[in-house]
Amino acid sequence: MRQYIGSNPYSFFFILTAVALQLAIGALLREQPWWVMALTAFFVGAFASHALWVMIHECAHNLIFRKTWPNTLAGILANLPHVLPSSVSFQRYHLKHHAFQGVYDLDADLPSYWEARLIGKSALGKAIWLMLFPFFQVTRPPRLKEIRMLDAWILLNIAVQMSFNAAVYFILGPQALMYLLISFFFSVGLHPLGARWIQEHYLVHPTQETYSYYGPLNTVAFNVGYHNEHHDLPSIPWNHLPAVRQAAPELYDSLVFHTSWTKLLFRFLFDPKITLFSRQVRISRGGVALNAAVKPDVEFLEAAQVASRP
Description:
- The protein is mainly α.
- It has one domain (2-307).
- Helix content is 55%, strand content 1%.
- The protein has helices spanning 11-29, 34-60, 68-79, 87-99, 113-119, 123-131, 133-138, 152-171, 174-188, 196-201, 227-232, 241-247, 249-252, 261-270, 298-307, and strands spanning 212-213, 257-258.
């Protein structure tokens, strides 16, 4: 697999293209009815915004440039059409997710206990959770005590983003800014693309903790569905992840995987057995899953264990 490890600087051109595309569409929509804007955001903008999320993910792993700082700057650029500054913070928390997956106090990908309890099992609750997914994510960092919530790079991310938002508002108009924001929410929320967050680590087959997606949307999502491959070898850029699966079919084809984000979205919404508790939770930094829990995670662990049973 060593031949696939490295960086892919050509990804930077995809960032430039997606940012330019979102701005151009926003400019074209500034005089259109709101429903045209909303439909365009759902069917076009969400895919461009999600692609930029994948590029931010590549930047977080230093998979575009060799050094960290140009990757961080590229992530800030990719963040611009998302309206909400998050690329640098994502970089910090995502690397912890890889190192301490499922550890409640270190993994921001894991829902908070109050969050899982609030949403419950209903389709309506889970739909609201997906629709407001970015807001729920913002509530998780305070429980991760080992990560600074602010540093110079995060402040730069905020300053650049706020300046960009102001420029879009005054030059292209408020509707263009709203188009960008709605595209962002669809890209990570109540949309087939939002099922990606369910696909990656929600226990649809409780003996397996991480799942890949092998479907057509990988074409416009830069192979982000190859999630087992990515977790096994996070130093391999998006364009080589299919080759990892092809090189080791005996490993990956024997695992449970998804072939439709749309099907998974509806299953998550309407299957009461899949909830925010359907995650593997740990309290050991060494990664050992514990059968007994200690406070403050005892309720989440117990609920997650019950939810994960066949």
